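Could someone model adenosine-5'-triphosphate with this protein?
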Amino acid sequence: MSEPLLSVRNLATGYGDLRVVWDVSFDVLPGQVTALLGRNGAGKTTTLRAIAGLNKVQGGSVLLRGSDISGTPAHKRIRAGIGMVQENKRVFKRRTVEANLLLGGYARGVGRKSLRTALDEIYELFPVLRTRASNPAGQLSGGQQQMLAIGQALMGKPDLLLLDEPSAGLAPAIVGEVMASVQQLKQTGLGVLLVEQAVEAAVGVADQVTVLDIGRIVMSGSASELDDVEIIKDAYFGRA
Ligand code: ATP
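Reply:
Sure, complex below.
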């Protein structure tokens, strides 16, 4: 088994001095998806923000390829290979699809030469974005806009992608499309931490599953062990 890309160890985090997450541990391996599940307010986004460097690590540690990055500022974590797509991330609707991708690259400090290669890789992954490259992003479907938001993060050439509820606000039929994109991302060797409330959809692409409730882990294991979605839901709704 390969070495973890990301290891979260006994993480405690929150907002300022307020603690909302306690003793959370899990790994993300290269080419795999770890799904972080749980109901509203469980602490999923807070955990993701601590990994990205947007919330302080109050206790425990965050390791990237074995190096402790718990105190590293957010912009350096991007350079170290962490990409993030925030929940309900909006694209610039009047700008073209390609302009949105390029802006994603500029924002992450990618050099002019690498921008073209990064663009080509994203178009290969999401051919629909190439087809719609010169259309305003606002003309894309909800699912395609989510692919574009993922594409913007990929412009920074991350090894680890933090995806916060990519299914939020999408019709159930479109959620499948977005999860198919996540499946493709795995095949490029990227490690993905997928925060979701849509349990079935997330478990379908996940290799590892961690369920949080009220800031603590209530269940974790490999997706094949936890393939009974009802058991996950019991933990999720505190029925276990
Ligand atoms: P959701 O699906 O609603 O995003 P979540 O599992 O991601 O849920 P978090 O957003 O991590 O949950 O919230 C965890 C707890 O932290 C909640 O009790 C929430 O009220 C609190 N919280 C979130 N943002 C802040 C903030 N900026 N300041 C203080 N507390 C916050």
